[in-house]
Amino acid sequence: MTRILIVDDKEENLYLLRVLLEGHGYEVELAANGSEAVFKARARRQDMIISDILMPVMDGFTLCKTLKEDERLKHIPLIFYTATYTDSNDEKLALDMGVSAFIIKPAEPDEFMRRIEEILAANKNGKLSASQKQTAGDKIILKEYNAVLINKLEQKMFRLEQVNKALEAEMAARKHAEEALRESEDKYKRLIDNIPDIIFTIGLEGKLTFASRRTQEILGYETTETINMNIFNFIPEEDHQRAIESLQKGMKGEKIKHFQIPLIAKSGERLIFECSFSRVYKDGAVVGAQGTAVDITERKIAETALRESEERYRRIAENMSDFISELDPQGIFKYNSPSIERILGYNQEELIGSSAFDLVHPEDHDWVISTYMDGVKTQSDRYVEQRYRRKDGTYIWLRSSGHPLYGSDGKILE
Asked: Please, which residues bridge with residue 280 across strands?
């Protein structure tokens, strides 16, 4: 079987050529540089050597000179296959030194194999021996080799300078980017630390992976304590199932907003929070959730107190022997207590939206309206006695007292 020795310091180049040649039925040996190639050529017959030029230890030109000076090796066809030495002077020097062919990488596989097979056939038929002899003297070759080497070194130095400049620019850009990133992270941290709500992230199983500084201020836990703690450690046991269901909904894609749940502080105090959270992705997969927790304990206490106050007011209003009405500035009924039915015969809702002045006796009508409007204008209390028409059409005397209603902003409610 025809044996070919491939010489290249890059493993990927050796692999590609080996696959190509073995695919065409050739036996292949490999060498990483010219010195190793000479050793293998002397140890075992080679029918062809295909070599790169730019290599450590011994380059391609030195390999060629060494082969041509060895009586046992000088008849082996040598092919230069290079991506670095591409100048016409490089090819001329190689051919002057006795190289059989000069091929520039990357060559089309079919054309490359055609050249290989032609050279092997010519060598087998004895037609290659004359063409692979040196056609120039050692001094000329040495001079040309030095010129080529100097040119390559200059090119190499130039490319190295360009690479160094590019590296310096890249390092400067990277340093700038790193500084910008640090600055951005500092801003983000300051922002998170100063938000009055708790910011958190959790994994799929509910373990906290991040908690903002407000966690310590509100719940009493150091932020380092909370890492890897499960959120269910903070939730009362009776609320676990409700929290699990909300977490599962959130992980399935529903954006959970205004979810209220109690949390237990480190001191044991029970606080009420309003939570919102949404999914977190990494590489397209859901890895957890992120959200906020707002302490609404004081608001819930205030709401409870307000409901209790309203309930007390409602019970008082509904159980008074007199009836209470709420009118707007034009005298339109907005509310009537249940006792209005006992006194005037109308049910609690029947008069809502109608004018209270429609029930006033015609003889009392004008002065009652005047008194009411003056009270609205001056925002003062008024007391009047007037006749009111009952549902059955009869009139009764009522003594009315009117008081302005004020909102939390100090303005009269309309």
From this structure: 288
- Residue 77, preceding peptide bond in cis (omega within 30° of 0): no
Q: What are phi and psi of 394, to 5 degrees?
A: -80, 160
List, in sequence order, every residue forming a beta bridge with 259; answer none if it has no partner.
275
Fill in the amino acid letter for 219: L
User: At 384, phi and psi to the nearest 5?
Assistant: -140, 155
Helix (H, G, I), strand (E, B) or coil at 408: coil
Q: How far apart are CA 67 and CA 343, in angstroms?
A: 129
Which one-letter amino acid corresponds to residue 320? M
Cα-atom radius of gyration of the chain, to the nearest Å? 49
Instruction: Catalogue the E-assigned strands of 153-197.
Output: none
Burial string for 56-75 (b: 16+ CB within 10 Å, else e) reads eebbbbbbbbbbbeeeebbe
In this structure, how many other beta carbons lie within 10 angstroms of the beta carbon of residue 370? 10
**What pLDDT, in 10s, does the model give residues 192-241?**
777 778 888 888 888 888 888 888 888 888 878 888 888 888 889 898 88
| Measured distance CA(65)–CA(48) in Å, rounded | 16
**C-alpha torsion sign, points 144, 155, 98, 46:** positive
Q: Do 258 and 282 touch, CB atoms closer than 8 A?
A: no
Cα–Cα distance measured from residue 320 to residue 339, given in angstroms and rounded to the nearest whole number: 7
SS (H, E, C) 64-88: HHHHHCCCCCCCCCEEEEECCCCCH
Distance CA 167, CA 173 (A): 10
Instruction: Say if residues 29 and 44 touch (Cβ distance below 8 Å).
Output: yes
User: What is the β-pairing status of strands 333-336 and 325-327?
Assistant: antiparallel
pLDDT digits (tens, 9 = 90+) for 317-360: 666 768 888 888 888 989 888 888 888 999 988 999 999 899 99
Kindly state the tokens that stand for 108.
Answer: 């089309």
Unique residue bearing structure tokens 């490319």: 159
Parts of the chain with a pLDDT under 50? 130-131, 140, 143
Q: Which two tokens stand for residue 328?
A: 């707007």
